[in-house]
Structure formats: structure tokens, C-alpha cells
């Protein structure tokens, strides 16, 4: 019991002092940028741009850029997870090496070399 409590509160050399504060700040920023408020603002923005595209006030290319940007922003975690699975790293940051390659197949034995370059030529011997 005492050992488990001491291990849970011990500081690691890999974690600098204040790392938990930085992690908490990044977590708060992520929750703010991807939370309910940001989702609501993005829905309103997409609806406004869609209505402006329908009325002809906004270029279709600009409207599609806004919509694609919203998808990229809110789907970033899924996109990164897909890229990491294609590359071979998992979300924990560890590298998964590819499986070992099969040994090359043995080459067939070559026939013995013939030093006569004209052997087998149909030249009359005469």
C-alpha cells in the first residue's frame, strides 16, 4: 500500500516541473476550441455561409472553403489517428516496426560457363 502511494506521487525525470500546468492549459484550450460553444459557433457560421451562397452573395469556392475548414478543425483527431495508423505509430507515440521481411528465395544454379563463344553455331567446318 505504501509503495503504491509513493509511486503515484513521485516525480519523473521525463516530466519537467510545471508540466501538469501546461498539460492542463492545453486541455482547457482544446476543450474550449472543440467544445459545445465552438461547435455552436461553427454551425451558425456554416448556416450563414450556406444562406449567403444560396442568395448569391458569397462565391461557392469561399463557402466550400469555410465548410471544409470546419470539417478539418473538428475532425482533426480522427484525421491524425488515420495518418498515424497508416504510418505505423499508435496514439501513445510508440513506433510499431513492420514485420520482418521473408528471406530471399534461393536462386537456381546456373549452367557451367562455356569458354567457346561460337559453340553451337551452325558454321560448316571445313
Which parts are unreliable, with pLDDT below 50 for 5 consecutive residues or more?
Answer: 1-8
Number of strands: 0
What's the main sheet like?
none
Radius of gyration: 33 Å
Total number of helical segments? Answer: 5
Gross morphology is: elongated
Strand content: under 5%
Give the N-to-C terminal Cα separation: 104 Å
Mean pLDDT: 76
Helix content: 55-70%
Order of helices and strands: HHHHH
Q: Structural class, from secondary structure content?
A: mainly alpha
Care to give the gist of this entry?
56% of the residues lie in helices and 0% in strands.
What does this entry look like structurally?
- The protein is an all-alpha fold and 126 residues long.
- Helices cover 56% and strands 0% of the residues.
- It is built from five helices and no strands.
- Helix 3 packs antiparallel against helix 4.
